[in-house]
Every structure is written in structure tokens, then in C-alpha cells.
Amino acid sequence: MKEYEIYSDLRVPVNSKIIIRLDGRSFHSFAQNMELKKPYDDNFCRVMVNVSKELFEEFSPLFIYSFSDEISILLDNVPFNGRIEKMNSVIAGFASSSFTLNYDVQFSKAVSFDSRVIPITDDKIYDYFKWRQDEAWRNCINGYGIHFLKSKYSSDEANEKINGLGLSDIHELLFQNGINLNDVETWKKRGIGVYRKNKEVIGFNKKKSKEQSSYRSFVHVDCNLPIFSKEFFNELF
Q1: In a domain? residue 83
Q2: CATH number of the CATH domain containing 99
Q3: Are 42 and 151 in contact (CB under 8 A)?
Q4: 43: in domain
């Protein structure tokens, strides 16, 4: 019956770079059922950061970027011999399990992520992550906008009003009502990055009888990302 597994051998080249993007499945309903705080829930963010860190430690990517219920994983060491079906199933399953274990309540319904594999070339890495960071900013503006409108109107009225507004209109509406998005935490506007950084460690060299410095890498969670630029990724890699 092995011949019926017709999709199991679809592969990407193992010497290429890929992005695996995870999205929470039906997380809009999850947010309602869990009564998450709007427009941002700190505990939900904490869990997504922990999931991203555990993904980083398990699969050793170059970079992970997350906002809302989305995680993008940039890999240059393609796992599972490039088998797409294997990568999608294992990594999405790992993220789902990690999310469940990191949350501090018992769910009434199973939580899951979907996964897609995106081939990427070096010259398109910046374009991809800038695209996702722009989406994080749109998500921030819309999130604060609908939260404000629902504090003034019914849910249906708020949804109707925001559908007729552009991002600049929502931004101005919030500003006129005392909400300056420039003052909100950076991670809400630009997302969160996970990547390796080097730190200096001072030790004592017994043979030379003196202190000396060395550098060790560690997994860094960056909640204060800059607006992405090509220079950011050039320095990162």
C-alpha cells in the first residue's frame, strides 16, 4: 500500500532556504471562547513567544518572526530531507503541542496550527518579512480601531463603521480620541523576533593567569524590533 502515499515524497532542495509559516486555526473563535483581552492579550503573547523559542531550539532556524497568531520560521538547514508533508505535519504539530503546554488553563477544544512551506531566495528574505511586518502594523491599527469603536457602539455598528475607514483614517480617529499608537509597545506595532545573538563572557585563563573575554551565542527574544530593512537582515546573517 506504500504506493498510495503519492504526496509523501514531495521535497524542496535540502540546500535551499525556506520559510515555514504557521497560523492558528480558528483562533478568532479561540479568542472569544477564552475571553482574551482586546486589543492585545499579554498572556497570549507570552505563550506565542514561548512557542517561538521552543521552535527555535528544536529546529535551529536563522530567524523566527511572530505577531498575532502567526509564526514565520526561516530555515537554511532544511529538516526531514526536504519532505514537505513531513515538515508541515511535524512542525505544525509541535507548535500546537507547545501552545497547549505553555497555556495555563485547560482547553475545552483542541488547539491547532496550519503550516505552509514557502521557498525563498536570499534577495527576497527582506521583502517577505517586511510584508509580514506591514501586516502586523495593519493588525495593530485595526485592532485598536475596532476596540475603540466597540466601546462606543454595538458590535455590528462598530464593524460597519470601521469597514468604511482606511488605515490613516483609523489612526487619526484614535489620535483625536486620545490614543496615540506611537506610544504603544513596539511589539504590538512591529511583531517579535527570535534569533541568535552573541554576548561577551569574561573568564579567567589559568594558564595565562589573567582574565580574557570570549563570545557565546544565545537565543534572543526581540520585543523592540526596528522597522525591517535590508541592513537588519544582512547584519543578522
Answers
A1: yes
A2: 3.30.70.3000
A3: no
A4: yes
123 Cβ neighbours under 8 A, 6+ residues apart: none
Q: Which residue has the higher pLDDT, 104 or 121?
A: 121
Q: Quick one: pLDDT at residue 206?
A: 64
Question: How do residues 73-106 score in pLDDT, each as one tens digit?
Answer: 999 999 999 999 999 999 999 999 999 999 988 8
C-alpha cell at position 164: 468604511
Contacts of 183 (CB under 8 A, 6+ apart): none
Closest CA to 148 of 116, 121, 170: 170
Q: Give the three-class secondary structure for 72.
A: strand
Can you point out the beta strands (E) in the chain? Answer: 17-24, 63-67, 70-75, 113-120, 192-205, 210-222
Q: Is residue 54 part of a domain?
A: yes
For 32, 137, 149, 157, 174, the CA distances from 164, given in Å and listed in that order, are: 24, 18, 13, 11, 15
The range of the structural domain enclosing residue 38 comes to 2-189
pTM over 0.70: yes
pLDDT, averaged across the chain: 92
Helix axes 125-150, 167-176, angle to 10 degrees: 50
> pLDDT of 161-180, one tens digit each?
899 899 999 999 999 999 99
On the question of pLDDT at 2 being above 80, the answer is no
Note whether residue 221 is domain-resident.
Answer: no
Q: What local confidence, expressed as pLDDT, does residue 208 receive?
A: 64
Separation between Cα atoms, residue 55 and residue 47, nearest integer Å: 12
Cell numbers for 169, please give them.
483614517
What is the tally of structural domains in the chain? 1
Measured CA to CA, the distance from residue 215 to residue 161 in angstroms comes to: 54
